[in-house]
């Protein structure tokens, strides 16, 4: 009872002292690990907050999370290494992992099994291009053990706001070292966007940067499964063999999907498909297809560009316009109506990754099947 009262008072003092919700949440997590007294930390920060008017805002914003980290390190520990500390902290539960999108959550759960608890930042149907995290999501992310990032545009900004471990999660890139395709430096609506080059991960808000839709290539996703296993092994070295075996099983499943897609799309090699948002560039490159985006460098096409796209669609004998459920359908519908084509909705962010890749492959195969 005394401990609960102290915890409640400590939380109130931290909030009054101006500590951000993510830092309060992380302090609570550390307390549960036996590595932090909220009352002692709150008392220290309360003294610091009296000097708020003497400190620049940025200095205080850095100081308060740092005090959480220092307090966590300052308490006596009975374990002998960083790996032991993490294992001891997780004794009561699984590794807490945060990811950006549902397909990656499915991948991490496949690799981690019951040893992980995975949270997803974006909701079903939500456009990651326009995502802004809520205060609750930042709190949950700050309290996670691992943040496995695809280095999406919003993730780059988000990770800069997180405190380093132990006050924040360990951040691991799943795409580091992969050969990422680049978005073209300039293209018009309806033009082939195929530009592939080995590059480091980057945001794609500017043309010429890396294409972030890497998970839509099962071969690259298999490599990310291995990266996930390595990251989880850092958090739980004693379970590294389990993660390695699970990753191997996941890679085998992805290799089967890759083989299915090669057979399914083999006859369509060299043909073009039209899609509103250029999400299938990796898939197109992998299986020899050409992606014709309607969207122009992240923006809706102007009237002249829309007209050019219609002409290109006719020239390529486009019979199906693909649209992702996260985007507006109006321009795709206008083009489809002008050329007498169907509109097919796909969802690159569906959580059932393996089956979804098969669905997308089947839809492309049907759209690109030669007219007999």
Outline the fold blueprint.
Blueprint: H1 2-16, H2 21-32, H3 38-49, H4 57-74, H5 82-89, E1 95-99, H6 102-112, E2 116-120, H7 135-142, E3 146-149, H8 153-159, E4 170-173, H9 218-235, H10 240-265, E5 272-275, H11 281-287, E6 290-293, H12 303-315, E7 320-324, H13 330-339, E8 342-346, H14 353-368
Parallel strand pairs: 1-2, 1-3, 3-4, 5-6, 5-7, 7-8
Helix pairs in contact: 1-3, 2-4, 2-7, 6-9, 6-10, 9-10, 10-14, 12-13
Which descriptors apply to this entry?
alpha/beta, 3 domains, globular, 372 residues, four-stranded parallel sheet, Rossmann fold, single chain
Brief account:
The chain is built from 14 helices and 8 strands. The protein is of the alpha/beta class.
Explain the overall architecture.
Mean pLDDT is 78; it is low at 1-6, 33-64, 66-91, 185-189 and 195-207. Helix 2 runs parallel beside helix 4 (57-74), helix 2 runs parallel beside helix 7 (135-142) and helix 10 (240-265) packs parallel to helix 14 (353-368). Helix 6 links the parallel strand 1 and strand 2 (116-120). The protein folds into three domains: 2-76; 94-182 and 198-251, Rossmann fold; 259-368, 3-Layer(aba) Sandwich (Rossmann fold), CATH 3.40.50. With 372 residues, it is of the alpha/beta class. It is globular, with a radius of gyration of 24 Å. The protein has 14 helices and eight strands.
Structural class: alpha/beta
CATH first level of the largest domain: which class?
Alpha Beta
- CATH homologous superfamily classification of the largest domain: Nitrogenase molybdenum iron protein domain
- Contiguous runs where pLDDT drops below 50 for at least 5 residues: 1-6, 33-64, 66-91, 185-189, 195-207
In round numbers, the mean pLDDT is 78
End-to-end distance, in Å? 78 Å
| General shape | globular
Query: Largest sheet, order of strands side by side?
Result: 2-1-3-4
Relative helix content: 40-55%
**Main sheet overview:** 4 strands, parallel
Q: At the third CATH level, what is the topology name of the largest domain?
A: Rossmann fold
The helix-strand sequence is: HHHHHEHEHEHEHHEHEHEHEH
* Count of discrete structural domains: 3
The total of beta strands comes to 8
Number of helices: 14
Radius of gyration: 24 Å
Percent of sequence in beta strands? 5-15%
The CATH architecture of the largest domain would be: 3-Layer(aba) Sandwich
């Amino acid at each position: 009872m005394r401990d609960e009262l102290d915890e409640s008072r400590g939380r109130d003092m931290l909030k009054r002292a101006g500590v951000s919700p993510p830092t309060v949440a992380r302090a609570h997590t550390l307390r549960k690990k036996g590595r932090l007294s909220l009352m002692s930390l709150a008392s220290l920060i309360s003294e610091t907050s009296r000097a708020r008017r003497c400190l620049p805002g940025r200095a205080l914003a850095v100081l308060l999370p740092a005090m959480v980290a220092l307090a966590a390190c300052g308490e006596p520990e009975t374990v002998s290494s960083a790996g032991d500390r993490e294992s001891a902290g997780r004794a009561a539960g699984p590794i807490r992992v945060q990811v950006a999108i549902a397909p990656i959550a499915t991948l991490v759960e496949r690799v981690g099994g019951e040893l992980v608890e995975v949270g997803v930042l974006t909701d079903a149907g939500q456009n990651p291009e326009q995502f802004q995290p809520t205060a609750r999501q930042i709190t949950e992310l700050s309290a996670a053990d691992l943040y496995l990032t695809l280095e999406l545009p919003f993730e780059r900004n988000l990770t800069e706001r997180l405190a380093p471990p132990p006050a924040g999660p360990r951040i691991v890139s799943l795409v580091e070292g992969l050969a990422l395709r680049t978005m073209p430096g300039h293209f018009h609506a309806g033009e082939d966007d195929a530009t592939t080059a080995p590059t480091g991960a980057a945001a794609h808000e500017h043309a010429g940067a890396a294409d972030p839709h890497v998970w839509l290539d099962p071969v690259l996703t298999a490599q990310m499964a291995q990266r996930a296993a390595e990251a989880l092994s850092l958090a739980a070295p004693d379970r590294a063999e389990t993660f390695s075996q699970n990753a191997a099983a996941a890679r085998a499943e992805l290799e089967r999907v890759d083989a299915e897609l090669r057979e399914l799309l083999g006859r369509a090699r060299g043909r073009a498909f039209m899609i509103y948002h250029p999400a299938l560039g990796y898939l197109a490159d992998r299986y020899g297809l050409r992606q014709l985006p309607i969207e122009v460098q992240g923006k809706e096409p102007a009237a002249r560009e829309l007209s050019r796209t219609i002409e290109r669609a006719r020239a390529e004998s486009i019979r199906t316009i693909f649209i992702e459920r996260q985007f507006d359908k109006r321009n795709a519908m206008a083009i489809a109506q002008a050329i007498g084509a169907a509109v097919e909705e796909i969802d690159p962010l569906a959580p059932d990754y393996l089956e979804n890749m098969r669905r997308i492959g089947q839809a492309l195969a049907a759209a690109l099947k030669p007219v007999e």
